[in-house]
Amino acid sequence: MSRFKGYWSFVKDPILGYIHISEDDRKLIDSFPVQRLRRIKQLSLADIVYPGATHTRFEHSLGVMQISTMMARNLPVELEDDEVYLVRISGLLHDVGHGPFSHLFEVHLEKHLGKDHEDMGVWVIRRSELADIISSLGYSVDEVVEVALGRGSSKPPYIKQIVRSAVDADKLDFIRRDNYHTGAGYGNIDVERLIYTLELVNEQLAVNMTSLSVLETYIIARMKSFESIYYHKTIRAAQLMFVQAIEYAIEEFGFLSFDDPQEYLTLDDFKLWNIVDESRRGGEILSAIKRRDLIKLAYERKYLLADELIVNLISNERIREEAIEEISKLSGVDPAHIYIDAPSLPSIPYHRAYEYDPMEVPIVKMDSGEREVYRLSRISPVVEVIRGYLNIFRVYTLKKHREKVREACKKLFGAETVSSRISA
Asked: Per the confidence metrics, is the pTM higher than 0.85?
């Protein structure tokens, strides 16, 4: 019997319409690790600026499941039902390793445990109830870990790239979904056209030339979403404060150690919020966030990847700490009230996407009756122009210290971007 028979029910999704759920889907969807995603917001603290941005990782995961299925069914090679369904459940499970407040908590996972949400996802899939459910569906845990999280090499690259690549189901869902819930307005992407014109080049996903304009729109939407949502200066102010509050709570309560995945999975947004609220120093910061009494942007520079000074500040924690000390000396402001911020996500969706140069998504074009493959930047002036753009380096502080910190930063890092002065 087909994996897609055994219909159970459907979900009405605001982006994708009706998503049909089979009995097999239900086994995974109703598991504790997946249901927990209902209690983890997709955009942590973004509702401090966009009140509608309260959607969850659960909603997003259903969307990725659906888009993954569409992509697997529309490849230029025909996959067996079992392979399509493997992609489907991998899309569903791709985010099960996220901690509370998603990327904000990941800062602490990396600092204290040396792990990211994908490492935790592997752990959860292998050692929670998901392992038994996956086995009961006739798949190995290794298969799902490989397709959902890219850990393995038994599958063709294009199978894994459906969930993890430059143009994958994850990004095709969250760009539209996040724009819908925030109202930012950059999510009008013809996803179906991209899906229906997918190509393969040396077992890698490629885009047909007829969808070049859609791909360019997608890239620009990702970049503009980065500016207006993911790296909005006020959202980042709240997030930076909460990251510090979590760190104080960890120092006070020492809760960041897990003997098994179930212990990790008990943490969600609600529980972590309460833990931080009960800590002395973390609670003080959280009280300020509750009143929307946020730190203020003092300095901003937009930069290219070639800017070695800023790149080093972003990539090296020791250099950042030294920079904070220098700012403190020049400004006379307590280093505890100086926050250096830099993006944890790339502005353009090309990070760890392909096995070759990620900036060069292959474009397939028919020239004089022959199938030719081109580098994206060669045939898209838009992509060539924005290559390396947009990255932002910021320094925040308390409102009363803003001018002193701004002047110190200008001495250390050079003139700020004009737009930051206007928006301050």
From this structure: yes
